[in-house]
Amino acid sequence: MRYFLKENLLFAILPLVIILSFDVTLRMQNSLYKEKYEGAKKAKDSIEVLVLGASLTTYGVDPDEFDLYTYNVANLAQSLYFDKRITLSLLPDLTNLKYVFISISYHSFAFSSQFNRDYWSYYGNGIKYDGTNYLLANLSPTIFGYTPKVSYTMLKRKVLNRIKYGSDILDFEVQEGVNLSVPITKGFIAFEGRDTTQFNHDSYAHMSKSYHEIIDESDEKEEIIADLEDFIRILQAKKIKPILIVPPYYVEYVEYLNKPYLESNVRIIKKLVDKYNVEYWDFLHSEEFDISDFYDMEHLNRKGAVKFSSMLNDSINKLEKESKLANRSYSTR
What we know:
Blueprint: H1 2-28, H2 32-42, E1 49-51, H3 55-58, E2 70-72, H4 80-90, E3 99-103, H5 117-125, H6 135-139, H7 141-145, H8 148-165, H9 201-217, H10 221-237, E4 241-246, H11 251-254, H12 259-276, E5 279-282, H13 302-331
Parallel strand pairs: 1-2, 1-3, 3-4, 4-5
């Protein structure tokens, strides 16, 4: 009987030991969220331009193409809600910050939560989504944070990549298409080449349908806009210029998006422009980009990111020139 109980006890304890081992490993593991956030804190005295947004700017804005010191804290599925709060948490130390790129994606006014990524982001930067209980996520990231399936996949990839590439790789989880041997620079990583399977009618239709479902179910628009307005006011009060940007999509994919909803987004942005006198740079329909600039229907590859970033840099330099001329004119009065 004692032997039977001992065997059953060991059988019951084994899963707990595995989960605890996973938890310890995940707590020590780096992530794109942590890498970007900690990197921004280290570069706090240098940052003059801060890049916010979701995956479009995560992969689309390369800080190395700017003359001013630029840092990219955009992240996958990162909403305006988290853009604002990440910035505000860093702002007291960003003494040289002049410009903030606020990226407006097709779905930016539809949701504020990052869904499961709320926990993933929290592990990297400590920013909580209002109304979410983080007690269980703190207790076990394996079960309640990343979830068992994601936790297993992350650790499996880490082991396989270490075997395949050795130690000189990105030490955090990245999407397929990112070159593991190229280090992150000022918060930026890039897609390489092009995923040819994504450029077709079925892919366009599937992606646009998934967004339409989120948009149709959303009732957050007014709250998100009010929160964004507050963010703009805070930045302007600190003499920091917010710049609203709309990154490019592949031209064929744009035709599958809901045109009335796109027009609604434009009306919202133009109201903000008129009310707060902010810059608004819309590249959604830009003819400067072709298929060779895109990794998939939504995301620029490294080549496209260099092109887009160079365009943004030219516009920033123009603002800098205008600002200096205005200050010189004012000082001679």
